[in-house]
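During the no-cost extension, the postdoctoral fellow (Dr. R.K.) reprocessed legacy sequence entries with the updated structure-token encoder. One reprocessed record is reproduced below for audit purposes.
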Amino acid sequence: MSQRTSLAMVQTAPRTLQAQSLPIPEIDEDSALMRVEACGICGSDYEQYEGVLRAPIPAVPGHEPLGIIEAIGDRAAQRWGVDVGDRVAVETMLSCRFCSSCLGGNYHLCDDRRIYSYIPLSDEPGLWGAYAEYMFIHGNSIVHKMDKSLPAEIAVMFNPLGAGYRWAVEVPRTGPGDTVVILGPGQRGLASVLACKDAGAGTVIVTGLAADAKKMEVARAFGADYTIDVENENAKQRIREITNGRGADIVVDVTSYAVEPVAESLSYVRSGGTIVLAGAKGYKTIPNFVSDKVMMKEITIKGVVGVTSTGYEKAINLIESGTAPLEMMHTHNFDLRQAGRAIQILAREIPNEESIHSCLIPNLAQGIKPNR
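Re-encoded structure tokens follow.
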């Protein structure tokens, strides 16, 4: 290819992203080079931007990559079943494949895992994140071929939707007739609504704040049976009313930084039910967490990190089916150079601006449209 360098937004300090020109690497038989079409933005991007995650600096962020294969080694093409010109969704985790976790089927918990977006610039070839025009795809990656006719901003939802399927369905084993309470109506909460309804959940309840009114509308459009404004309603009482005093079979907490929902979930779940903790809290302790409730109600509490292939596959199937009104969740496209602003809008730092699902589109400012 004629282009020798890639524009990339490099995080050089907390809350500091700098546009840099990085060399485009040569690839070997096991790797590939991807032209980035879109990179989704989520709460983890904000945590990395703030410095809460203690990620290495400098680095190219971006862990939700979607793009077109520009170059690929023969062994990689055979292993992944893709070739030059194909659109791929790239999984976040890079596993070693040989440790006890990998061999036990839990590659996302690899003892030596690396994660796109959190690999330092000093680790060659440097283009380890999707806040860039091009991204290096390591041979240990897992990629999923996707339909090129889909709008890039919709196709890139494979990541939050994959989280919805894994966190709200696969891990708690949600099935037909179950009552599920989802705490938080952000993009992963909304993805959880879609996943639970697809799995046959009987009743889905979503909680949020008064400021989340628009997101609650989307939740109802996605199939939520009830939405609860926790600032103006008694959530515990409402959930008891809806479930006839029994409580929810499953509670999924996807709220970011808020610690209160963790303790409150013990009152929302039924005896013998399951709570899934999926929202990072910045390593804060949980006030008013009464462990006796866990014991006396025999509650199962599960933590989750990341998404695995089965969740991604279900998400891609949903996206490609065209059966869900996913466009309702997507609110913003940003150019690469607007990455900081995209994160700040997601975090509600900019007055009168709010996003639900947003993504970076390289060269958007130059009028190059995402693939349709």
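The chain has twelve helices and 17 strands. The two ends are 23 Å apart (CA to CA). The remaining legacy entries will be reprocessed before the final report is submitted.
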